[in-house]
Amino acid sequence: MRRPPLSALPAMLLALAVLAPAQAQQGDAPETPASASSAPAEASVAGTAAADAPAHSDDEVAQEEKLYLEALRSLSEGRPDEATSKLSRLLEKNALHAGAWLDLAISHCELGNKAEAERLFDQIEQRFNPSAAILELMANYRASGCKGQRTAARSMSFKLGAGYDTNVNQGSSSRFVTLGSSTALKVLELGADSLPRADHFKVLSGDFNQPLGSRGMLLIAQLRALRHNEVRSQDSDSALLGLERPWSGAGWTGRATAAYGLVKLGGELYQRQAQVLLRAVPPLDLGESLGWSLSAGYSTAIYPTRRYYDARTLDLGTSLAIRSKTSTVVLSSGLLADQGKDARPGGDRSGWYGGVSLVALLGDKAIAEVGVSRQSWRGARIYAKDFIEARRDQDTNVLRASLLFPVGTHSALQLEVRRTFNRENIPLFQYDSRWFQFSWRTDNW
Fold first, then answer.
1. Residue 203's beta-bridge partner residues?
2. Secondary structure in 3-state letters for the chain
3. Where is the composition biased (Low complexity) (predicted)?
4. pLDDT per residue rounded down to tens, the chain (445 residues)
5. Please, what is the Cα angle at 363 between 361 and 365, to 5 degrees?
6. I need a surface site. Which of 80, 99, 101, 231 has the fewest CB within 10 A?
7. Using CA atoms, how far apart are residues 399 and 396, in angstroms rounded to an integer?
């Protein structure tokens, strides 16, 4: 069921403009906030003259307004349960906050608490003499039945593409490599399977997002299938299932995500992965043009056919978004720590990453994106005794660009290109690739 025509934000504006002046005209205030959220409908009203209400200091007023804005944000983002809690706390501080009374009633209605919402609507009518606009708003919510509403619609998107990759197997850039111990080195020529192999490919992917309940919980499902024309050993299928939930506290906001995925390579199970990720936005007022966030993630990767490559990775990152009317620049960076099994070649790794991307509108016909990123790893010990006696240093630089051309309401055509430079101190693992893909995508179904 959709929300009635007026949303929570217009309700707040109307409440401030119309109800607030009525506070000074009333001979008594609404009942105490404790009874506002938990007392039965037949409870008596605690009369308190508005003129006798204690004066609030500037700090108290600022704290109340901050709490009210946080509650409105929770309500507008589809988290009426959080809004209800914050509004109840606000009314404990200021029982004469007319806007909070109205939004608390709306929150209970959206949670499906019909009896409590109706009681609060009645109290507003009796004690605040609301205007015709407020009465119409409440009538719309009453007409909805307060059965609990879907806070966001499910969405699906699909992408069908074809492209070309000059190095589908990440083959070595060096045809001849030197292997062995420092006292017995050998120069070997790599076989064809270890050298770069180019191929055309086709890819189909889909994303599905389903809201769960009224707390902003989101179920996420992703599927992807990649097929090559000739190098079938690099065909892959992947599936991911995750849950994401918004959170807030002490002025901070963010989202917590947990996900589990499987990857098949060449028709065999290649990897099982699990991840938890916490994203957080600090309580700083940076204006509309800036957005700063922090992230912390922990993931595990298990390779059923190569168990000595199993890994556990910690990722601590930050990003800064700089926005204008027609473009957004995102700067990101972070630190990495990768713990492997004792038998893993090279042992544990530490690293870092950084990048910058630009998304810009090109008139009303296209959306362009360009970006550059770098990821560096450093091994803790020599890669393999008597075979590759060096600690592995890996630096991967990626350049990418895309053009998106909207076609109709839900569809778009997209051209993407990518250039990868993987530079390492062990020539066997060093590779380059050029990749491009042309896709048709459909979103927001």
1. 161, 226
2. CCCCCCCHHHHHHHHHHHHHHHHCCCCCCCCCHHHHHHCCCCCCCCCCCHHHCCCCCHHHHHHHHHHHHHHHHHHHCCCHHHHHHHHHHHHHHCCCCHHHHHHHHHHHHHCCCHHHHHHHHHHHHHHHCCCHHHHHHHHHHHHHCCCCCCCCCCEEEEEEEEEEECCCCCCCCCCEEEEEECCEEEEEECCHHHCCCCEEEEEEEEEEEEEECCCCEEEEEEEEEEEECCCHHHCEEEEEEEEEEEEEECCEEEEEEEEEEEEEECCEEEEEEEEEEEEEECCCCCCCCEEEEEEEEEEEEECCCCHHHCEEEEEEEEEEEEECCCEEEEEEEEEEEEEECCCCCCCCEEEEEEEEEEEEEECCCEEEEEEEEEEEEEEEEEEECCCEEEEEEEEEEEEEEEEEEEECCCEEEEEEEEEEEEEECCHHHCEEEEEEEEEEEECCC
3. 22-46
4. 333 333 444 444 444 443 443 333 333 333 333 333 333 333 323 333 333 444 455 666 667 777 777 777 776 666 676 777 777 777 777 666 777 778 888 878 877 788 888 888 888 888 777 888 888 888 888 888 887 654 455 788 999 999 999 999 999 999 998 888 877 888 888 998 899 999 999 999 999 988 887 677 889 999 999 999 999 999 999 999 999 998 888 878 889 999 999 999 999 999 999 999 999 999 888 877 888 999 999 999 999 998 889 999 999 999 999 988 889 999 999 999 999 988 899 999 999 999 999 999 897 789 999 999 999 999 999 998 888 989 999 999 999 999 999 887 788 999 999 999 999 999 999 999 999 999 999 986 5
5. 90
6. 231
7. 10
Return phi, psi of residue 6, to 5°: -95, 130
On the question of a common fold for 8-144 and 155-442, the answer reads no
* Domain boundaries along the sequence of the chain: 8-144, 155-442
* CATH number given to 155-442: 2.40.160.60
Spatial CB neighbours of 52, under 8 Å, sequence gap ≥ 6: none
